[in-house]
């Protein structure tokens, strides 16, 4: 059901400025942004005095596990967590079961999301040694990108054949989103760790096993190939300082053909956290040193890194309690990425305008998402209201994830999300989730 909403007296954060205004959303669309809009009949009023209105977050890197891995997560639970975290659109990865390697398998995922999702959605198609034809058949107006695993990770989707890789780079009509880690380097490091520790490898060794050299070798090869072929490359979860010199600090747009993402865990955890969190922060690529973490923040500020993704990749608590060698990589992040970023705003390390640039505007620009990612008249009513000076602690009871755990448990955040609107409907307000009919498949201007 369409719901009309008037948000009054919000501080609107958009395109580098903060302006106090009212926003009227009708039939799912932002109809007017104006400092003095009177309440039309039959319209819900949200008084936003002292609150900031941001475009809804677009998280272009999630693993919602549906279909096939729904003991870990599913589209209903994780999209609810997304809404609670101020995320209004997600792009889901192909390492589901079966892996999403054809347009037909993607259509099944669109069907699942249409039934279950609380937020807008699209999907990446996976790349295998033999599915180039399928990638060429994918609809660029509906499919977000092609995901290439240059190294092995959860789901065993690594693309190893150099010829298949080059063919993809030469002919992909879609943006190529790349997971870059060098398998041979990792195998060598793992063999050394086994010599030292046997089968009982400490979690902190993850940073040595999946080290910065493994990332650099793989990402520099991907960048070289993109430059040679002219392919549009988006490097996923950049995690180390040594990779950053390869990235330019231009604004994303037609002239910046190689763009990059950083993920929540690489910004908010570092090597020192393995002592307390152990395998809970075992993710691929690994969480690395404090220096790496600081360099990633600097690269975000300078523009070398363009987007922030959550890499929300839940596994069950039982799986994460296993010893290092048997513990899968990944963890749930989507509900706490925006609150964690707001805590950096409070500390003065990052501005609210930069949060919006990296989490809303740039994902929309890079993926060419139609009419989302900005608060503009005529755009979809995807928005999030946040309140500062409203501290809260992450507690297990408040987690919306099916897996029921978070590496952020116990952390205090100084700002909270009060309302999330998806396509003009309230999906989340004051701690409560609401059923929504508004979520839609994203469309792309290509
Ligand atoms: O840590 C990770 N988890 N990295 C990946 O590449 C995949 C992801 C997952 O799906 O669990
Ligand atoms: Zn991922």
Explain what you see.
By secondary structure, the protein is of the alpha/beta class. 29% of the residues lie in helices and 22% in strands. It has 13 helices and 19 strands. Strands 1, 2, 3, 4, 5, 14, 17, 18 and 19 form a nine-stranded mixed β-sheet that branches. Strand 1 (5-14) and strand 2 (17-26) form a beta hairpin. The model has no long low-confidence stretch (mean pLDDT 96). The chain binds (4S)-2,6-dioxohexahydropyrimidine-4-carboxylic acid and zinc ion. Residues 63, 95, 153-155, 179, 283-284, 313, 328-330 line the site of (4S)-2,6-dioxohexahydropyrimidine-4-carboxylic acid.
What is the topological layout?
Blueprint: E1 5-14, E2 17-26, E3 29-34, E4 44-47, E5 52-55, E6 57-62, H1 75-84, E7 87-92, H2 103-116, E8 120-126, H3 132-137, E9 145-149, H4 162-171, E10 176-179, H5 183-197, H6 206-209, H7 212-229, E11 233-235, E12 258-263, H8 264-268, H9 274-277, H10 290-302, E13 307-309, H11 317-320, H12 337-347, H13 352-367, E14 383-387, E15 392-393, E16 412-413, E17 416-422, E18 425-429, E19 432-433
Parallel strand pairs: 1-4, 1-5, 6-7, 7-8, 8-9, 9-10, 10-11, 11-12, 12-13
Antiparallel strand pairs: 1-2, 2-3, 5-14, 14-17, 15-16, 17-18, 18-19
In short:
InterPro entries: Amidohydro-rel, DHOase/Allantoinase_Hydrolase, Dihydroorotase_CS, Metal-dep_hydrolase_composite, Metal_Hydrolase. The protein is an alpha/beta fold and 446 residues long.
Name the descriptors.
446 residues, alpha/beta, nine-stranded mixed sheet, eight-stranded parallel sheet, 13 helices, 19 strands, 29% helix, binds (4S)-2,6-dioxohexahydropyrimidine-4-carboxylic acid, binds zinc ion, Dihydroorotase
